[in-house]
Amino acid sequence: MEKEGLVRYAISLRDLKPSEVKFVLIDGSVASGEEREFSDYDLYIVKKSPKNLSKYEKEVWGVFGGRLLTATVMSSRDYEKSYLSGEFPFFWLRKSAKKVKLLFGDEREFKKIRIRLLNSLKWTPEIQNEIVEHYYGMELFEYYGKLRNSASEKDEMAFYHFANTFADHFVGGFLSGINRSDIASERNIHKEALKAKVKPPNLKGELLILYGLKGRSKKATLESSRRLMSWARDYLIADYGMEKFSKGFKEVLMKLKV
Fold this sequence. Notes:
Elements: H1 3-12, E1 21-27, H2 28-32, E2 41-47, H3 55-58, E3 59-64, E4 67-75, H4 76-84, H5 90-99, E5 101-104, H6 107-120, H7 125-150, H8 156-179, H9 189-194, H10 203-210, H11 218-241, H12 247-255
Parallel strand pairs: 2-4
Antiparallel strand pairs: 1-2, 1-5, 3-4
């Protein structure tokens, strides 16, 4: 990566001068050192001006060195607010705040911002419980229900889409919550889950079934999703601690059988 050329090109896409830019930051696989041949450039262009921008003005697209470049233009205040808005999953934001790299700007000033962000993005029991309740009660049960409802229908694409989504939420949300795991990228979701301290037995085998890579049949897929839901419910009731949950969520665990 030719850093100076990348910075010049990126800011030119919005006709900005270096004097108008506070930071240029890079995120994604390039920042974490995991880039591959077809990886793209994920940038933040942080302006000195505090002026709010429209969605159109914030988005930047381009091609650098034969690769897709995407960037978001914002003020430094909005950059920090984007991490604290709740728009993205907590465990993604923590990893992003750690791995994002400075390409242009005052290193000491950016270090202070990073420290503020990491101090604001600490795991707490309240945040963990919120994530666990959300992914079990909303995402897993929703897609488990959709999976079961579509099993008798002829639309196999919908059935296996629901199975894939269920698996993604299980490893990329529920297991991240109960293990307090930070996720670096979509490519690392499954690696993080498979090495997690708390996880179902034969998790890899269950994921291969849900993603249609092993024993591809509706019956096997339904049984796999039921085993994971049963494990999750039993773990929350017996090991996680029922006293931590809200009144309504306790009813979900006790009254909705899987």
